[in-house]
Amino acid sequence: MAFELSEDQLKTAENELKKYLPMSQQVYGFLVIRNRVRSDPVRRVLVDRWPQFRVIMCKPQVEQKSDLFKDTLLFATDAAVLEEILSKSSVFDWSKYFCVGTSVSHTELFKAVASAKGVPCKRVAKCYLMTLEDVGRLPPVDSSGISVSSLDESHIGLVSQTWKFGKDDVAVGLIHNMIANFPSCCVLDAEGKPVSWILTYASGAIGMLYTLPEHRGKGYAKILVSSLAKRNHALGYPVYSFIEEENAVSYRLFANLGFTEDPSYREAWFRVNEFQIFQ
């Protein structure tokens, strides 16, 4: 039903997924980085068949509880094949917690399969996909007098505590992996402590943008998004972000910096057996 791709096949899959942008953006972005950087733990990349795959999944290896917080990334061109994999294969263990990021068009399919299996399935986010096609058109940003740096592992707890999905420290492993392996940017105060920051996910998406309340209104977010966009572009990564539909402030920020959305596409995240991860 599904088998794992080899190193050489991953490179071929990256090129194939490029044909399906923007719908394949998250899985494509993951493979762009995966083919260049080895993070820990490495996700397995599975397809329904090769080389003309119809479903491709980037599934984390679960070695400890915090690894459950790393979501499976999924792209499918055939809903019937996806339904068969969800319903009949052993790729997903529906008796345990897992989270999947995929097209919002698969919402009813996920709900139907979960209902048939008698397990809770909740859509926890619905997002605009915003991409920056030309980094050279970023507007000028004045960062004079501001200390811009990268996050390090001593900042993991701070980022985890302030992230809306990071309660109960279950996201510590995810954030550790992001800070240790992928680009990040932060603004440091006079004591060298981060007061505003943004990270890169394993999929290449930039996010977790946050500014401490007492430091808001100073233009830090604009500086950080611009800085990280340039850094990721220089590394050959796609420059994009997911913005939750209700987050009008972030949408305006990214739009004003030149990011654009495809109105025909939305990304969604589904959690199955969510209660298990927070026990």
Major sheet, described briefly? Answer: 8 strands, mixed
Q: How much strand?
A: 25-35%
In helices, the fraction of residues equals: 25-40%
Low-pLDDT segments? none
What string, H for helix and E for strand, traces the elements in order? Answer: EHHEEEHEHEEHHEEEHEHE
- Strands of the widest sheet, in order across it, are 1-2-3-4-5-12-6-11
Notes on the structure:
The protein is an alpha+beta fold. It is built from eight helices and twelve strands. It has helices at 7-17, 25-34, 79-88, 107-117, 156-162, 172-181, 220-234, 248-256, and strands at residues 3-4, 44-47, 55-59, 72-76, 98-103, 121-131, 147-149, 184-188, 194-200, 206-211, 240-244, 260-272. The chain has an eight-stranded mixed sheet, sandwiched between helices. The two termini are 32 Å apart. 38% of the residues are buried.
Gist of the model:
The protein is an alpha+beta fold. It is 30% helix and 26% strand. It contains 8 helices and 12 strands.
